[in-house]
Amino acid sequence: MYRLLIVDDEPVIVNGLVQLFQDNSEFELDIRKAYSSSEALEIAKKTKLDILVSDIRMPQKNGLQLVDEIVYYWPLCRVIFLTGYSEFDYVYEAIRKNVDNYILKTEGIEPIFQAVKAAIDKLDEENRRRLQLEKAQMHYQIASSFLKKELMERVLSGESITSILNNIRYKDVEFGIALDRPSFFLVGILDRLDDPKFKMPPSVQRIFHDHLPTSIACEEVIYDDRVFIWLLQPDEGLLNRFRSGYPDQGVNWPGIVAYMRGILEPVQNECDELLSVCVSFGISGDLLNHWESIHLQVEAVRSMILKRALLGQHMLILDLEKLSQLEDTMHKAGGIEQEDFKTLIIEQIHQFVQENLSGDLSLTSIAAEVHLNPSYLSRYYKQTTGQNLLEYIQSTKLHVALQLMKNTTLKLNEIAIRVGFESPSYFTTFFKRKMGLSPQDYRNSK
Q: Which of 159, 210, 292, 381 could form a disulfide with 389 if both were Cys (CB 3.0 to 4.6 A apart)?
């Protein structure tokens, strides 16, 4: 499933396009929306984007400037511009930026549909080429430096990394992580190995490195053909993009973690599709000033992933600094049955939906709450409940809206906002589709 972001400073256009795409059965897309370039950029920092449909004329930062930011994070994102203007300089600049298409708003919805279909075809072809390359390389094992592997293993066994790096034995080792700058580790664990004839570790490594941007330095080690440890360090350019505006305010670390989640999502999807192997990940907090406890943190993450795997959950993306109450409950209880665990997860999802009806209820945000891959979450929810997650969200929105209409004197536009509809007209369309009459007619009938 590809992710489409629609951006325009006119909410009626954004909401209309979202509805038209959702109603078109030809598309299977995870659709996000933004009403400004800044809002779109915040989404890009924490969510992988495949297709961007954006207005080209917007206040503060226009669509051309937005593209530069989007492709920094997601270089493979396909771009389609919408505009009410046809000046040559915009067309020329869009072509220069290798934009996929440039459509006048007056042309209607069909050219937009066609442009998105073409973008999907390009993405499919790129994915096919990448998978073919991976298949061709699958039988070649990437050699790793013996000394660097030994160094990493000693660090992860509890030895002081500072002392090890000062050891003359490792003086010629090029260790790509600076201890005096923000860094984090990533634990990856293969949940199952269905086809042992392939060398899984090199294949998983290559897929990971295919998606890791050059703005993040990496050192790695493999244990038992199943457990991976990566040390990762964002460069100064990436860190600056996650600062609050002034260096002394520090780095927005949750933003870095959210960006990393977006990178890991396609890694997991590709491993599942190509290798028939599920990979779970755990992400640490900033290791700056915490290097000496790295071995304890790694073991904590590894233990949590293995516990969840035993409970039938795969394709995890655990955030060590955002441990949920669920993990705490599991730890204190010392054990939990698989069916009880499923119930707890579904209850956690439902609670998050109910508490955030007026906020971000994207698949990405819900998946982050329960530490799962977004695509896997969608399948897990359907298998566990027999219902699509989107159906549950919509039914909850409708139920709350009905209760507010019956039991309060709130205006309909206020009710719409409370259940997550920025546009009253969009709420009216949704309500009529579900109830067969408008919100006002429904209220008048009570």
A: 381
